[in-house]
Amino acid sequence: MCRPTSPKPVRTGRTGRPRSAEADSAILDATRAALVELGWSKLTMGDVATRAGVAKTTLYRRWTNKSELVVDAVAVLFDELELPDLGSLEADVRGVVLQFAALLERPEARTALMAVVAESTRDEALRGRIRTAIVERQKLLVLEGRARAQARGELPYEADEETAARNADLIFDVIAGAVVHRLLVSAEPVDETWAAGFTRLLLSGLASLQN
Amino acid sequence: MCRPTSPKPVRTGRTGRPRSAEADSAILDATRAALVELGWSKLTMGDVATRAGVAKTTLYRRWTNKSELVVDAVAVLFDELELPDLGSLEADVRGVVLQFAALLERPEARTALMAVVAESTRDEALRGRIRTAIVERQKLLVLEGRARAQARGELPYEADEETAARNADLIFDVIAGAVVHRLLVSAEPVDETWAAGFTRLLLSGLASLQN
Amino acid sequence: MCRPTSPKPVRTGRTGRPRSAEADSAILDATRAALVELGWSKLTMGDVATRAGVAKTTLYRRWTNKSELVVDAVAVLFDELELPDLGSLEADVRGVVLQFAALLERPEARTALMAVVAESTRDEALRGRIRTAIVERQKLLVLEGRARAQARGELPYEADEETAARNADLIFDVIAGAVVHRLLVSAEPVDETWAAGFTRLLLSGLASLQN
Amino acid sequence: MCRPTSPKPVRTGRTGRPRSAEADSAILDATRAALVELGWSKLTMGDVATRAGVAKTTLYRRWTNKSELVVDAVAVLFDELELPDLGSLEADVRGVVLQFAALLERPEARTALMAVVAESTRDEALRGRIRTAIVERQKLLVLEGRARAQARGELPYEADEETAARNADLIFDVIAGAVVHRLLVSAEPVDETWAAGFTRLLLSGLASLQN
DNA sequence: GTTTAATCGAGACGGTACGTCTCGTCTTCCT
DNA sequence: AGGAAGACGAGACGTACCGTCTCGATTAAAC
Q1: For a surface tag, which of A101, A200, D12, D104 has the fewest beta carbons within 10 Å of its beta carbon?
Q2: Which CATH superfamily is domain D75-208 in?
Q3: C touches D (3+ CB pairs < 8 Å)?
């Protein structure tokens, strides 16, 4: 999975010096590094600029504020999430749970995700950015997993399209929510045991959605 | 539910003028009010002090920083959560889900919870504070609900105490996580329909935990 | 030379616990010590209280502010100035110049004198306090020296009383002013050589005042 | 007399936005104004910044503290001192005495001079700043006056250069010291009568320095 | 090969909030 | 009643970042 990180409405003016592509990646790298070291609240634009060997102006030319910069810097981490076919729905779910947990163990990911979500409670635009950059991307995994399970005959095909969508959303929130909450709010580890227990609960539950 | 808010390691020294109890509550009220109006990032200590009719020093004498102040200010909101006996496990779960969702619709609660969780990813002490002030409190509801269901005969009594605890934790993270994620990350409403679907999924899943 | 340091209108009321006399001297000692270590601007009432093993309240009960406290604390230093009879007017003058210079070499004296004078440029009451506590005391030395010189026949007796007073004032300002200015503004040392030169200049000048 | 006020070790770096020259003079003007109104101790950096229409940071970028700012702001007042040729040494001395006294009647000058001298008793750097910004400037007047008197034949030319310098210093401290002490310590006016008396004393004394 | 125009770095700018400090007062308990 | 202890309202301190701005110096496409 890959996608262009084109933050600000680039003036398509022909003439003039073009923006440095190196700068962009240097900035995003610096942002992630700073995030790990300092956390969200201690991270400053000036520091990121210095680390990236870039002027503050260059940052502001591309991102309007800290939140947007961090979303872009971190979004790429969520692209790593994949759904390798492990042979059964149960294995697939357990796999994605552990994979997501591993991602959230990384300080830059956990810090950034929560910080950005927190910021978004007051910022509609940021909420949208999170949705497209992170949420929808993850939701695809749910759809993919379901399709695979249906092909395997583990799950029935749903007749009503709307119901199908609603169920996918529900499952997504249950999986992602449980993992995030366990790790970041309850502050307990997500290990094999927990993943197994959770998967058992979820799969049994899934049956009930079909009637 | 009520509990003393004793923020800083209070020197129990006998002598000297005692801290004003009025100030404490005025500050917490002011913090909640400011949080609603301004959100986490615009909330300033100086503003809180002004609103509370109190000097800035008085704030810092009690709380070392914004995060701790906000945790204490918001924790009381979570005390409102209750588990009225609605006659069945299913009704109880649906009730608590909607109640929790209603709480998170309130701007001060949603903003504060996420902001504080975000901050806590870098702050061990804050994490502890959140746990005792918010998490443990909510977890009691799960235990209460289970006990009630067991009394009704809807759920079996668990033989192994450790398993029982693990299951309670799991259920707690699934419920709280799903609601929070739906509301704050997916940014979709938690209505009767969703609550019903979620409850159905959860209850079916619960059966699997007994074997 | 000695004098009671009774700063504030002492309540002569019979009843109640009498004021600690020890406290007074402990405070003045602490003030001088703090002055040497910290200088005027870094000296704080709280610190003085702590050093003196006394509550801040006790300070404020006796002195209304920093300036008055310091004047009282330092005034005693100027009591040390004496005019031993060295046998001639010239020796007397040189002696008092060196003595005054030695006093102003002491950090607490130089710092306090200037600080208090500076403060007094805006404070009429403080100006009065300085005058009675320091200036008048020093001026007596000039009168004493003149009387002695007149007795020796080195100086004529002045007919007009007013002129006599005016001349004493002039000489006082010339001596004290020159020493203070040399030490604190020009920041050059007052040694035997300078004292000799200055004395020569002054004594020659004195002749002119008689016509 | 005029001179550039170059406060802080200015990085002569080529790049970056250059410092505003307007800001510098606006700040110094504001400082003098605030000094007149409020006096040294009530003068705050924030207030000066506001009056100057400048951010507090801009002040701190140029001056490390209040004292240095005030020295620079006030030094310019001492540039006003001049030595118009009044035809005789006696008239010249009396003129400069009255002129200096007039300067010290101005609240900003008297307050600032003393405050800064007081502060300098603990601050070597400030002492140096005062010396170059104020003292040396005034001392030139003494040299100029002597040269003029020598040209008129009122004073002999001094053979030994070192003695000449020492005498100039002595005279400077006597004049400046006497005026300052009379005005600020004794708190008596410097009028025509006093100036005449002082000048008479000084000129008679000067004769003695030649032998 | 100029011109042109947007980029770059550096760093000063007006702001705002921070968390600390000291002030002088007030309140409580203890002697 | 006096004193110590220490909390209180007030407000300045000096620092750190914010996001904007002015600089002179690149840099490439358009002429």
Answers
A1: D12
A2: Tetracycline Repressor, domain 2 (1.10.357.10)
A3: yes
Across the interface, whether the CB atoms of C135 and D208 are under 8 A apart is answered no
Minimum CA–CA partner of A167 in chain B: B197
Domains D21-62 and D75-208 share a fold: no
Q: Could you name the CATH architecture of C76-208?
A: Orthogonal Bundle (1.10)
**Per-residue pLDDT reduced to its tens digit, A162-177:** 999 999 999 999 999 9
Rounded to whole angstroms, the distance from the CA of residue C34 to the C1' of nucleotide F8 is 26
pLDDT tens readout for residues D92-136: 999 999 999 999 999 888 888 888 888 888 888 888 888 888 898
B57 touches strand F (CB under 7 A): yes
Mutant choice from D110, D120, D185 vs C, greatest count of C C-beta within 10 A: D185
Q: Would the CB atoms of B200 and A209 count as touching at under 8 Å?
A: yes
Q: What is the pLDDT along chain C (211 residues), one digit of tens a residue?
A: 444 444 554 444 445 555 566 778 899 999 999 988 888 888 999 999 999 999 999 999 999 888 889 988 988 888 889 999 999 999 999 999 999 999 999 988 888 888 888 888 877 888 888 888 888 889 999 999 999 999 999 999 998 999 999 999 999 999 999 999 999 999 899 999 999 999 999 999 998 776 5
For chain B, give the longest Cα–Cα distance.
Answer: 61
**Cβ–Cβ below 8 Å for B114 and A130:** no
* Residue D145: how many other CB atoms lie within 10 Å: 21
- The residue whose two tokens read 């310098």 is D165
Q: Where are the domains of chain C?
A: 21-62, 76-208
What CATH superfamily is the domain C21-62?
Homeodomain-like (1.10.10.60)
Q: Which residues of chain D have pLDDT under 70?
A: 1-13, 210-211
Q: Mutating which of B35, B68, B122 best tests the A interface, going by the most A Cβ atoms within 10 A? A: B122
**Single-letter amino acid, residue A44:** T
Contact: A201, B179; criterion CB under 8 Å: no
Q: Could you tell me which of C19, C103, C108, C42 has the C-alpha nearest to residue C71?
A: C108
User: How close, in Å, is residue C171 to chain D by CA atoms?
Assistant: 9
- If phi > 0 it is left, if psi is from -120 to 50 it is alpha, else beta; for residue C44 that is beta
Burial of B145 (0-12, 13-18, 19+ CB in 10 A): buried
Q: What are phi and psi of B11, to 5 degrees?
A: -60, 115
